Structure formats: structure tokens, C-alpha cells
Amino acid sequence: MANTHASTEPSRSTAAVADQTLIRASTGVHDASLASGRVRYLRQVDSSPRDSATVRSPGSGRARTALGGASERRRLERDLHDGVQSELVALIFELAVAQQNPETPPALAHALAAIEGRAQAALDLVRSIARGIYPAVLADFGLPQALRAQAMRAAVSMRLVGIPPRGSEEAEEAVYFACSEAIQNVAKHAGDTARVVLRLLHHHGSLVVRISDDGQGFDPDQTTEGAGLQNIRDRIVDLGGTFELASKPGGGTTTILALPWPTRADRDQ
After folding, report:
1. Does the structural domain 53-64+142-268 have CATH classification 3.40.50.300?
2. pTM for the complete prediction?
3. 202-225: pLDDT as tens digits
4. How many whole angstroms separate alpha carbon 253 and alpha carbon 243?
């Protein structure tokens, strides 16, 4: 924060500075999700199948405690948000107020501004960690809005098609992180100009997710499956779903995920 003790700069009230500081410090994933909601991704595109080699997943994945894991991650995210983040926001507020105190020496105000910058960086880091554990936007607004927020941060162009109903916590978490992994794979391997279309189709208690890119593609028979694809496979198969990947050199890559998707309304009955 700039030093406002110089006589050539009009002073601002402590309350005004504090208000602006709180606005800046409290801007998190919720605000980002609402802002990204104004960006329209829901544009229909051609979905004609392409002739390509196909790899199908085996019938089983590694056994993991998916049901309890989602709830535990949500608890950790809430603890970070309500505990560490709140304390950092309060600290940033107090540092801003101290800098605007007329009795604060200029040298001390400069030191406080540096500390405020470090506190803001720590706050950003905590938010990043919390988002990776269990994104607050996913819990509050559901899968499509969370994927839109992810698209805003993605290194490649992405469009989202389809708005399924809210699913179970574990299913929403699995699809969100699987899609995030797939988008990262496109950014790393498909080329700088690749575009992604992500379609969500809910039908008769199941969700089908189709992630297609127009990148350089590859030959599945000549490529070893990396950790990223294995993570996607395990997340979906562990919930009783299926994983398919189709690609060919020069023809892009399509990943299809399908899994049971009992809606929250169904579970409440």
C-alpha cells in the first residue's frame, strides 16, 4: 500500500481505506465464481464422432474410501476458510488501519505496507490450497459453475455445454477433479492453440461427461498412460463409472466419463 503521509497526496479516511482493504482481502473463490457466471460458455458445437483408436477402461479401479473422503475434504476447506483465512483478513485490515494512522511514522508505515503485502500473499496461498482440497464454489453452486470458474483459470480456451442437476458430494468432486486433470493434460500436450469443449449430459440417473479437444492428438497404442489419466480413471471407476479415451495423431483427443448420478432430490426421497 502506498505511503499516504506525503503532503502532496490527499489523505483518505481510515474507514475508506479499511473498506477497500477488506474488499480486496475478502475477494475469494465465491466472488470469482459469480463473476465467471456472467461469461457465456453454453454454445452448442458439432458433436459428430471421429474415426479414432479407442482405449477402454478395465472393469475395476483401486479401492478407496471415496464417500468419506469428500466429506473430510469439505471439512478441511471450511476449517481453512473459517479459521486461517479469517485471521489473515483481520490482520490485513489492522495493518491497513495502522498505516493510515496520522501518528504512524512514514518509515513504520512503509514497513507495515510490506508486511501487508506478505500477509496478502499468504492469504492467496491459503485460498489456492483450500480450492485444491475442495473448491468452495463446487460446494455452494455445483459442478457447472465450478467448471466455469476453472475455465477462467485454464491455459487453453474452453467451452462448457450442459447443466446437470446437483449430484452427490463424492460424484461432483470426482467429476470436477477429473475434468480439471483432463484440462491440464490438454494444456500440456495438445498445443498452445488447442480448444476444449466439455459437455455434461444427465440422463436416467447417470452423467456422461465428454471432454474433446482439437489438439495434435496421439497414438494410444504407442503411448504409456501417465499419472494424470490414471487419476481420472481411478476417480470415476471407484464410483462405479467408466472411462474411455479416443485419440489419433492430428485428430485431437476425446475423453468420455460416465458414472451414476443420483440427484440430491432423489437422495432426499
Report:
1. no
2. 0.58
3. 998 999 999 999 998 988 888 877
4. 13
